[in-house]
C-alpha cells in the first residue's frame, strides 16, 4: 500500500518540501491547546483562555485567505519567510505579555494565527509541478491529507510531552519556532524558489462556478465536522463513559488515515466528481449509523471508524478537482479559501452542536451532521456540470 508514497517522495525535489510541510502542520495541532493552557495558567480563567484561543483560530482562517492571495501574486518565499518570523514574534510577545489586558492578548493571538505559514497550501500547489501524471497526483493529495491528520494527532501529544518537563509557555514558544522554521525551510527549497505564480486568467467563467461549488461544499463539510466534534463527547457523557470520548475520536482519526492511505494507493478511473459525490453519500450513511449507535459506545466506535474511511477520500477528491476549476494564477488562493471555509463551517458547527445537545438527545448532532452532508451531496450533484464544464473551459483557455 505504501509503495506509491515512497515512489512519490523519491521524485526529485519533493522530499524536503514535504518534510517542511509536515513540520509546519504540527504547530496547527499544538497552538490551540498550548495557548489555551498558557493563558489559563497566567489568568486563572478558562473563559479568557477560550477567547484568546478562539482569536488564534479566527486569525488562522483569515490568514489563510490573505496568504493564498499574496502567494499567487508574489510567490511562496516572499510570503512564507515574513509570515513565519511574524508568527514567532507574535507568540514571543504573547508569552511576555502574559498579564496584559485581554484585548491585547487576543490581538497577538489573532496575528500569530494569521501568520502561521501556509506551507501545506504551498505544498498542494507544488505537487502538480513536481508530478506530471494526474493519477499520481491523487497519491500526492492523499499524502498531504494524511500529513495534516497525523499532525493534528501528534500536535497535542507533543504539547503533553512538553508539559511534563516545562511550563505551557515553553510549548507555545516551541510551536512558534516550528512554525517559523518550517516556513523558512520550505521557502529555501529549490522547488519553492522555482515556482512562479502563473498569469491570472480573466475569461474562465466556468472555473469560477466550479470553485464556488467546491467552496460551498467545504462550508457544509466543515459544519458537519463541527457538529461531530460536539456530538462525540456528548454521546460519551450521556452513556456514562466520558473518558471513552478520546477513544472515539481516535477511531475516527484512524479511519481517516486508513481511508486516505488506501485511496491514494489505488489507481482510479472514476472521475473525481463521482468520487466526491460517492464519498459524501457514504458519509451520510455512516453518520446515520452513528446517530443510531449513539447510545452504545462500542457500536458508535465502529460507526465512527467507518465514517473516517470515507471522509478523507471526500476531501482528497475535492482538492484534486481544484486542478480543473481554479483560475490560472489563483490555485493557492482557491485551496486556502476552501480550507478557511471549512474552518468557518466547523466553528459554526461547534456552536450549533452545543445548542442542539442542550436542547435535544445526544444522538441529534449526528443526525443533523448527516443531513448537512446529504445537502452537500445534493449540492455537488446539482452542480456537477459546473465542475465538468470548468475542465473543458480550462483546457481550451490554457491552449
TrEMBL record:
It is found in: Cell membrane. InterPro entries: MFS (IPR011701), MFS_dom (IPR020846), MFS_trans_sf (IPR036259). Keywords: Membrane, Transmembrane, Transmembrane helix. SUPFAM superfamilies: MFS general substrate transporter (SSF103473). This is MFS transporter. The chain crosses the membrane at residues 12-39, 45-67, 79-98, 104-127, 139-164, 170-192, 213-236, 242-264, 276-294, 300-322, 334-357, 363-381. The keyword Magnesium does not apply. The keyword Transmembrane applies. It comes from Tenggerimyces flavus. It comes from the Bacteria. Residues 210-399 form the Major facilitator superfamily (MFS) profile domain. The lineage of its organism: Bacteria, Bacillati, Actinomycetota, Actinomycetes, Propionibacteriales. It is a multi-pass membrane protein. PROSITE patterns: MFS. Pfam families: MFS_1.
Amino acid at each position: 500500500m505504501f509503495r506509491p508514497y515512497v515512489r512519490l517522495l523519491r521524485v526529485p525535489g519533493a522530499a524536503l518540501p514535504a518534510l517542511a510541510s509536515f513540520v509546519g502542520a504540527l504547530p496547527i495541532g499544538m497552538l490551540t491547546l498550548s495557548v489555551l493552557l498558557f493563558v489559563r495558567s497566567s489568568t486563572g480563567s478558562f473563559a479568557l483562555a477560550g477567547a484568546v484561543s478562539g482569536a488564534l483560530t479566527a486569525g488562522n482562517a483569515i490568514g489563510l485567505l490573505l496568504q493564498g492571495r499574496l502567494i499567487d501574486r508574489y510567490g511562496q518565499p516572499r510570503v512564507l519567510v515574513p509570515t513565519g518570523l511574524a508568527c514567532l514574534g507574535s507568540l514571543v510577545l504573547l508569552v511576555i505579555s502574559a498579564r496584559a489586558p485581554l484585548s491585547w492578548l487576543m490581538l497577538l493571538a489573532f496575528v500569530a494565527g494569521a501568520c502561521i505559514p501556509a506551507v501545506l497550501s504551498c505544498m498542494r500547489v507544488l505537487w502538480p509541478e513536481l508530478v506530471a501524471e494526474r493519477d499520481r497526483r491523487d497519491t500526492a493529495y492523499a499524502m498531504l491529507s494524511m500529513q495534516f491528520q497525523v499532525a493534528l494527532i501528534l500536535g497535542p501529544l507533543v504539547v503533553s510531552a512538553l508539559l511534563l518537563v516545562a511550563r505551557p509557555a515553553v510549548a507555545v514558544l516551541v510551536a512558534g519556532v516550528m512554525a517559523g522554521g518550517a516556513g523558512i525551510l520550505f521557502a529555501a527549497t529549490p522547488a519553492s524558489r522555482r515556482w512562479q505564480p502563473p498569469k491570472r486568467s480573466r475569461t474562465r467563467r466556468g472555473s469560477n462556478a466550479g470553485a464556488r461549488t467546491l467552496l460551498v461544499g467545504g462550508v457544509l463539510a466543515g459544519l458537519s465536522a463541527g457538529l461531530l466534534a460536539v456530538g462525540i463527547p456528548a454521546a460519551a457523557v450521556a452513556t456514562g463513559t466520558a473518558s471513552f470520548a478520546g477513544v472515539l475520536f481516535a477511531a475516527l482519526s484512524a479511519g481517516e488515515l486508513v481511508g486516505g492511505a488506501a485511496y491514494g494507493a489505488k489507481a482510479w478511473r472514476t472521475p473525481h466528481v463521482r468520487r466526491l459525490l460517492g464519498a459524501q453519500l457514504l458519509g451520510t450513511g455512516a453518520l446515520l449509523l452513528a446517530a443510531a449507535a449513539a447510545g452504545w459506545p462500542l457500536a458508535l466506535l465502529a460507526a465512527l471508524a467507518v465514517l473516517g474511511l470515507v471522509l478523507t477520500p471526500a476531501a482528497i477528491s475535492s482538492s484534486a478537482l481544484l486542478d480543473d476549476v481554479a483560475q490560472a494564477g489563483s490555485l493557492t488562493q482557491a485551496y486556502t479559501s476552501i480550507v478557511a471555509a471549512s474552518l468557518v463551517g466547523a466553528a459554526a458547527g461547534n456552536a450549533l452542536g452545543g445548542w442542539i445537545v442542550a436542547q435535544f438527545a445526544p444522538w441529534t448532532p449526528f443526525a443533523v451532521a448527516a443531513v448537512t452532508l446529504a445537502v452537500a451531496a445534493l449540492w455537488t450533484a446539482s452542480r456537477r456540470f459546473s465542475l465538468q464544464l470548468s475542465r473543458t473551459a480550462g483546457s481550451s483557455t490554457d491552449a
